Amino acid sequence: MNSLHFYKNHFTKIYVLPELASHPAVQRVRSVLNHIPCIIVGSKEDIPGKDQHLQTLFFNYPKAAVVGRCPGSRGHICCNYLTIDLYVGCTIGCTYCIMKSYLNFSPVTVNLNYEKSIKILLKWAEKNPNSYLRVGTGEVGDSLLYDPLLRLSEHFIHAFAEVKNIYFELKTKTDFIDHLLDIKNKGNTVFGFSLNPPTIAQTEEPKAVSLDKRIAAAKKAAQAGFNIAFHFDPVFRFPGWKKAYSEVINKLSSIPKEKILWISLGTFRYTLKLREKIDSRWFLYEEYIPCKDKKYRYIQKVRKDMYKFMLFRIRNIYPDAPVYMCMESPAMWQQVFGKKPKKIDNLCIIFKTVKI
Amino acid sequence: MNKWTINKLDSLLKDLGIFDRRKPADPELVTLGIYPPLPVAGNYLIHGFSILENARKANIDRLNIVEVPVKTKKEMLSLCLKYESNPGKYSWIEIEKMVSFLGKDESIDDKMICLISGHEDSLFHKKIKDYRGFPASLKKLVGENLLDFKTARKVSHLPDEFFHIFNQYKKKIKLTFSEGKIFLVAMNEIIRRDNVGVPEAVRICENLLSKKNPIDAVKNIRYPQLSGLYRKLKTIKDENIKGSGIQLCEPPFFEGNSFEIRFSFRTKKQFKKQVKVLENLTKKTDELFALL
């Protein structure tokens, strides 16, 4: 996927706060997307209803920093991740995306107050010298989908380059990494690639790049000296899922093991609100049960088998890589790993709570 | 305001032909002459048929009427809805009749939507379109308030024969509103999941509805793994603790890592017996935990 071509074909209007009109990121976007109107507005609420959708790009400057803890899920173990809402909204269009239930009627929003986020994270890093701060911009949007155009991630990479306990992750379903490869001081930057078998990627992740391209990008990033993470989330159960996921995992062997910082696993889950939006997707006809966080998941016994299988396959390639489950119950941790993450050698540091 | 004879009202005026149930007028008040004047527009009596009915019964020969200066069907319907004053309570059959009454040249506008639904509803026209496209037997279910619109829309791609069979059995076996909904949603998912054709769908529907417990039967097919877990647990319970007064409870939907045992006793003998049963049950621990 050519990023420039994608942006030109996708966005139809730009809205920007008056004080951001001369911001370099805005200027860059306006010079590339010079065929679409750019309108100054006092706030997001001033954007007319007809433009409240994902084809609109909005430059925002929230008063407060947009950093925080991953909200986690009641009754489930959270991996202690910190989030930066840099790009809010995503146009890859994954059918299973939880954001479908609440961000569809909003423009893609770029929060340009990144200096504030950086400042706070540096403060937190100082406050937690014996912990890792795993922080990423991929919670409410794809970290790299718009980044070649906006070039905001590099501010974070430069700012955190010398900070030993910040692991800044760029989570993506694209291969838009080239604009960052030449950065000299990479610090602990991590490129996180979300992976699914080609059959799923083609049908459920319509505008994501192919699996092969994602893996090729991971290889390239690793060769350039960056750390790598992989996210198998959501993992779907379908006829032939074992073979399909095994093939994906086998393809990872080209990435050197020392570059893999973590691999996460999460089986597909949904809220009732999301279900309403995607009611006819094939994967909803599996058996799901309501969990403590009001999300629906595969039956525990089924999930256990899925996680054990994935873990076994991953261990064949990366015997020592930290592998963890995202938003899983203590019972599941017990069944899959035999203990909770804080008691597992290579996971305890990841799951150690950061004081903020 | 004029007074018209009942005969004139009977002979000249046509009903709008929309509402199934009208608010009853109090016969005593009609007899005393305490009633709102009947609005008449052209050949239509817009509202007040129950007043007319009661007047006839009470041998009153004249009623107060007001000739209202409305010309279009839309104006008549609006006025009628204001008189009826029953927002949010109209059945889909009535709503469809309103649309038919207006014909092709006029349509329900936002103000009228508020009078019908009791609130703004940007999807109103889409819902009407969907409702009109439902298979006849499904329309009947929704029109008679035996199924909610949202569920109906979910299952509307199923064939009419399917709903025909469902309607027949629903009355016969007395499925409740919520059981009917559960059955249809589960059937819809089974049909989609298993890619079942029309004749097969109808056959499965009839087969399940003729079972002693159709809801359990449909759940067994829709959720075979979960049903299997409940069956296995039941077998363990039946073989090991049945009749002992001991309750063995699984975590909700088998999501968790522990089972719960509950029992009470009144005599030493009973307690001893229960302890023995529990001792035997410990031999089944692996089987139990295999369910989680």
Approximate helicity band of chain A? 25-40%
Report how far apart the termini of chain B are. 77 Å
* Main sheet: strand order of chain A: 4-5-8-9-10-11-12-16
Low-confidence runs of at least 5 consecutive residues of chain A: none
Tell me what the structure shows.
The complex is a heterodimer of chains A (356) and B (292). Chain A is of the alpha/beta class and 356 residues long. Helices cover 31% and strands 19% of the residues of chain A. Chain A has a single domain (62-343), classed as pyruvate-formate lyase- activating enzyme, CATH 3.80.30. Chain A contains twelve helices and 16 strands. Chain A has an eight-stranded mixed sheet. Chain A has a five-stranded mixed sheet with strand order 2-1-3-7-6, with no helix packed on it. In chain A, strands 13-15-14 form a three-stranded antiparallel sheet. The radius of gyration of chain A is 20 Å and the shape is globular. The radius of gyration of chain B is 30 Å and the shape is elongated. Chain B starts with a strand and ends with a helix. The model of chain B has no long low-confidence stretch (mean pLDDT 91).
Characterize this entry briefly.
Chain A has 356 residues and is of the alpha/beta class.
List keywords for this structure.
heterodimer, A: 356 residues, alpha/beta, pyruvate-formate lyase- activating enzyme, 8-stranded mixed β-sheet, 5-stranded mixed β-sheet, 31% helix, B: 292 residues, alpha+beta, 16 helices, 6 strands, 57% helix, elongated
